[in-house]
Write the structure tokens for this entry.
Amino acid sequence: MFRKSKNRIFYGWVIVAGASGIVSLIWGCDSTYAIFLPELATGLGLTNTVVSGAYSVGWIVAQGLGILAGRANDKYGPRLVIMFSVAVTSLGFGLLYSVKNPWQLYLYYGLIANIGMGFLGVPVMSTVSHWFVEKRGMALGITQAGIGLGAFIMPPLVQTLIIRFGWRISYLIIAGVILGVGLPVSRLMRLDPAEKGLYPDGAEAEIANAQGEASATNSEGFSFRQALRTTQLWQLFAIYTISSLRIGVAVHLKAYMVSFDIPEMTAAMIIGIRSGARMIGTLIISKLSDRIGRRRPLTVGFAVLAAMSVWLIFIREPWQFCTYSITSGLCEASSVLLMAMVADWFGMKANGSILGLLYTATGIGAATAPLFVGYLVDTRGDYQFALTVLAVAALAPVLLSFALKRPGKDDCTTENELSRSH
């Protein structure tokens, strides 16, 4: 049925480039909250708990919008949804220039900026999944690597901006870059290969498809209701929730290193190195998973992350933090396999809604952990107890990922047959 596209460059790779660029820009900027945290606390006279709380609220807002963002992407397409994301995110960061009170921090960053970012993740990842099947792992890996690239570049760059211009002007610069770069990139995005007369992975559509028939890849698979009935979806939900607790460490990592008299610029560079390692690891693991499957590299990645969580409790020197960052970054890349599993196992019929639910799970863990760590630091005076709790929690994703199995298709097939019979 399929024949290879005559075009030299399959447009799916343009989608991947645009998706990788946009997440690199926006999530790279968001990753700098760890750099801004000490500046916000000192400049506004706030505690770590209050400043961390804005980040936690932001995660609840952004990830809680996952299902809505997925449905909007399916209905309106990624161009409009991502343009909205870019505009609102830029507005939120720009308003931080004028922040003076805690409620403004929570409104500008926690609500406005994160409403914008909440309409980015699911549409981008779901759109890429639509364009690939055989090379889905690699395509999602390249897209996810954009997060690592942005988070590698932005922390030391923003630290430099803060030193030269102050943190308020730095937020204005970030807002301008997001708007100026993000809007043109969003215009490249298309939801479905059929819009270009193509099938996934570079096969050109037959005449029937050119006349308006939907691609089979978008009509097959589990409905959202069917997916909710599977044990596997709730296992993935638990993995997303618990594994995202490590974001509590990421937000406080600069402050933790500085507490051992490590210079701020050195700490910022180490945070950037972690993100650079994640970018490299994502490319390697995603490519490997297309050949050997998703579960084994996922389980190994979570196991190494658990070991690094324990080691973090005891390290004190810059070289140790650098080693921790490189190793953790490489293994954090395994999280991209979860998104590939969703598309592989449940199909594309309700991919946006299913990913949206799992992004909500990420929001639960990511919102809880920074606030939890900040509170314990303020009340106990150090990070050790908080890091110990998070290290114990890091064992759960190892066990859950080891137990994962592909869901059966019996319920999905039965319900589809019943629908057709009526």
Notes: The two ends are 30 Å apart (CA to CA).
